[in-house]
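Researcher: We're teaching a course module on how sequence relates to structure. For the next exercise, students receive a sequence and then see the predicted structure as tokens, so they can try to spot secondary structure elements on their own. Here is the exercise chain.
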Amino acid sequence: MGVGISNWRLARAVAQCGQLGVVSGTGLDNLLIRRLEDGDPGGHMREAMAAFPIQSAVDSLQRRLASRPHRPGGPYSVLPLYKLGSGASRQQASMLAAFVEVWLAKQGHGGQVGINLLTKIQPPTLPTLYGAMLAGVDYVLMGAGIPREIPAALERLALHEPAEVRLDVAGASSDKAYRVSFDPHEHWEHPSAPLRCPRFVPIVASTLLASVLVRKTTGRIDGLVIESPSAGGHSAAPRGELRLDANGEPIYGERDVVDLNKIRELGVPFWLAGGTGNPRALQAARASGAAGVQVGTLFAYCEESGMDDELKHSVLSYAARGEVRVRTDVRASPTGYPFKLVEWPDDPSAGKDRRRVCDIGYLREAYVTPAGTVGFRCAAEPVDVYVKKGGAREDTVGRRCLCNGLMATAGHPQRRRNEIEPPLLTSGDDLVRIGEFLAGRDRYRAADVVDYLLGTSAPAA
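Model: And here is the predicted structure for the students to work with:
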């Protein structure tokens, strides 16, 4: 769900309907900064911050904001880029932001709330998880990688014990392992009673990965989300040699179809994702043995989602007429994963040549520098900077800054030198068929989506 689209309001609305509401955990710390600098309408951020048990972290963030007053219409503050061994204040911003999002999502109901993280974004993972756990998060979902170390880390964090995960470093020798560590005791002397350990559900796109995670992970796997290439955001690349169709999109084949018979044999609940945003898909999923489905696209355009309202309704108006396209771009993401992009006639980013800036840096790649230290680079940063860091110039072609673009899609575009960051919109393939659900409407709520999927009511014009 990108950055801030599946926000606390949306997750809470879904949980109130008796389903699992999930907040996106990507970019929450910088998103919190921007919400505060926009004035925190309704005071929700500060209400949640007041409930955070480590008030020294709140004080630290407030001092940072006070030292750099935000001018309305001016550029937002940005947090320091994560690096190997980032200090306590940087980790606390991630902890606090995750707590705020989950705490708000859990207010006013007895439903369940989860958080979704990308495995490939490694440095903020542990403080983000800890902050979410302090707020009582019920589920952790992680895809875009192999999160084998997360269940054990969750168990340690629940006891307020130090945890660590492997950091993938390009150019590292096979006998050298880099780790990202997090110790709760660095942030408060007397932690609370042990926390409840959330259930862990990896998001996978292959039968083999599902089997490896369930059978070889240290710790408990509580279920699986089986994602197809039609889902929004990042997708797994096709197995084997990359082949492109006439539109330059990757061609998926039989090798990319997950064997649900083998998934059932693993003995854990599973949910299907990608192209599942209709009641027929839910019924088919249940008939296959799935516990249900994970739906993103329909919820992304509901009233409670964090997508910029003007952008949301612009896309919906064209989608209702069948005038949108969802393209799988193999070059857009600096990670190298295929990435879904929405194209429609009023796309404000169309034809714009964005000046390359990397000032958020979640998707940067860690690499070994000539001096033997760990540095970070991004194929979407300024080309000469990337090449100077040892990156290949050809790897920069077609890359787009997802961090800044997705933040703009959530209604918080950065402003620099009289230019405003253009949005970058991702959705699943279900977007091109959303007219069936809309049935003449131009807006709807999360509860309407739940009712539609469960067949408890039909969409009305």
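Model: If you want an answer key for the exercise: The chain has a mean pLDDT of 92. The chain has one domain: 8-454.
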